[in-house]
């Protein structure tokens, strides 16, 4: 009985979700002056390894430990 009830609930939920997914924001909402520009707030690409060390993708530089006299 529970599986039938949850199955019907799932089908109804998916139907509502698919129909509401077609609704878009209005032109007034999309063309605002104070709209957040999500592309300009992009963070650098950082990956964390299993050991906790982090890798930042970008160009590499050689670092020398020797002091120049």
Overview in brief:
The protein has 69 residues and is an alpha+beta fold.
Search tags:
elongated, single chain, two-stranded antiparallel ribbon, 69 residues, alpha+beta
Task: Describe the protein's architecture and organization.
The protein is an alpha+beta fold. It is 33% helix and 9% strand. The chain is built from 2 helices and 2 strands, in the order H-H-E-E. The protein has helices at 2-20, 27-30; strands at residues 46-48, 54-56. Strands 1-2 form a two-stranded antiparallel sheet. The protein is elongated.
Instruction: Please give the order of strands in the largest beta sheet.
Output: 1-2
Q: Mean pLDDT, rounded to whole units?
A: 77
Shape: elongated
Tally the helices: what do you get?
2
Helix content: 25-40%
Tell me what portion of residues adopts beta-strand conformation.
5-15%
- From the alpha-carbon coordinates, what is the Rg to the nearest angstrom? 26 Å
Intertermini distance: 84 Å
Element-by-element helix/strand order: HHEE
Q: Which residue ranges are poorly predicted, with pLDDT under 50 across at least 5 consecutive positions?
A: none
Tally of strands:
2
Question: What about the largest sheet?
Answer: 2 strands, antiparallel
- Structural class of the secondary elements? alpha+beta
């Amino acid at each position: 009985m529970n599986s039938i009830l949850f199955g019907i609930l799932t089908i109804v939920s998916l139907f509502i979700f698919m129909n509401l997914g077609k609704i878009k924001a209005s032109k007034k909402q999309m063309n605002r002056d104070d709209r957040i520009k999500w592309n300009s707030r992009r963070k650098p690409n950082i990956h964390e390894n299993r050991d906790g060390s982090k890798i930042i993708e970008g160009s590499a530089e050689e670092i020398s430990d020797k002091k120049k006299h």
